[in-house]
Each structure stands twice: as structure tokens, then as C-alpha cells.
Amino acid sequence: MWSICKKELGQFFSSLTGYIAIVVFLLVNGLVLFVFRNNILDNGYASLEDFFAFAPWILLFLVPAITMRSLADEYRGGTFEILRTKPVTTGQIVWGKFLGAFIVALIALLPTIIYYFTISNLAATSGIDAGAAIGSYLGLLFLTAAFTAIGICISSFTNNAVVAFIISLIACVVLYYGFRAVSQLPALESGADYYVEMLGIDFHYSSISRGVIDTRDIIYFLSVTAFFLLITRQNLLKR
């Protein structure tokens, strides 16, 4: 499993594409947070709420870009058959691919901790709420894990990396925001809107981002991640 994970990391950083994806992620977040209109410097108070509200939408593009080649390129290049001859189980292949992509996404998120210390030092009073920031970063980790599992799953169904990226992007958007959009329909105003919204990732991410660590939110993210990894495993067994 770890050999597959190392292989994924090596392939991603063997070309400029991996570095460009991470730099673009950090650049866009930095511009939104410090440069563009209504940035944190103009607001006049120390808070990372705008970053944690905007970062998931950037991850919607970043994570599919990371995972789109995970299994699609193995099929297209004919190396999946070689991989199956190695002394590894199907589950180890899935977990190796998942951990490799997940670590790359974490590498992209890690430098954003600088935002926290920068804004805390610029604050004239008490600085940023540490509890809320920790909860929000924990939410981003769970969100990244769920998006990674979805991307790996979609990549296991096609040998075209571009198709995998597009479908993964659509799937992540639907699961992240689609249920909230559906819950706002007038026909669901009688009380069903709350339960429909609970099915979406955004509902549980927003809950954790408030700094309240609820086991229901953690179980939800772990269940979504495990569900898509299980589908990936079953799909690979069929091949």
C-alpha cells in the first residue's frame, strides 16, 4: 500500500502540473483573502470565515485535478494489469491511491496555516478564535478526504483522465451543494428541507466549521469516504 502511495506522490510531482495546481490553489485563496474586493483587510476584523467559506469551492477543482489520473492512466497505459500481478490486494491498491492523492491535497492546504498566524499578528485585540479555526481546518480535512474518495471512485470507471475530472467535479458539486439547493424548494418548506439538507456535505462542513465537533458530522464524512472507496474496490474486483 505504501509503495503505491509513494508512486502516486512521485507521479504527481514528476511534472510541473502538480506544482502548478498547488500554486494556483494558494494564489487564488490568497487573492480572495487579501487582495480582491471585500477582503479581510478591508473588513477590519480578524477572521478566516471568508477563507473557510471559499476554500471548499477551490477544492472542488483541485481534488478532481489530483485524482483524475489515479486509475484512469493505469487503464490507458496498460499498467493496471501489471499492478494486479504485484503482491498487493485490491484494497491495498485503493488505499494506496487514496492516501497518495489525499497527501497531495494536504500539502496544498498546509501553507494556508500561514494565513492564521498572519491575521493573528495583524489583529489589534485578541486575534482569531483558535477553536473555530481548528474546527474549520478539521472540516477541510474531512471535506478533502470525501472529495478524494469521490475522485478516486470516478477515476476507476474510465480510462480518460479528462472525463474523470469533469464527472468528479460534477459529483463533488452535487454532493457538496446540491442537497442544500434542493432543500430550498418551496415544496419542502414543511420541514423536510432540514433532512434533505442534512444529506449534503455542506451541512456537515458548516457544522464543524463553527468549532463544534459533533460525532454525527465525523461519522457522516467517514461514511461518505468509506462508501466511495468501497465502490472503487468493487469496481476494481470486476476488472
TrEMBL record:
Single GO molecular function: ABC-type transporter activity
Pfam families cross-referenced by the UniProt entry: ABC2_membrane_2 (PF12679)
Signal sequence range: none
Bilayer-crossing regions: 12-36, 51-72, 93-118, 130-154, 161-179, 218-236
Record flagged with keyword Cell membrane: yes
Subcellular localization(s) per the UniProt record: Cell membrane
InterPro entries in alphabetical order: ABC-2_transporter_component (IPR051449), Motility-assoc_ABC_perm_GldF (IPR019860)
Record keywords, A-Z: Cell membrane, Membrane, Transmembrane, Transmembrane helix
The keyword Thylakoid appears for this protein: no
GO cellular component, one term: plasma membrane
Lineage top rank: taxon: Bacteria
Membrane topology annotation: Multi-pass membrane protein
Cross-referenced PANTHER family: MEMBRANE COMPONENT OF ABC TRANSPORTER YHHJ-RELATED, MULTIDRUG ABC TRANSPORTER PERMEASE YBHS-RELATED
NCBIfam families, sorted: ABC_perm_GldF
The protein's name: ABC transporter permease
Upper taxonomic lineage: Bacteria, Pseudomonadati, Bacteroidota, Chitinophagia, Chitinophagales
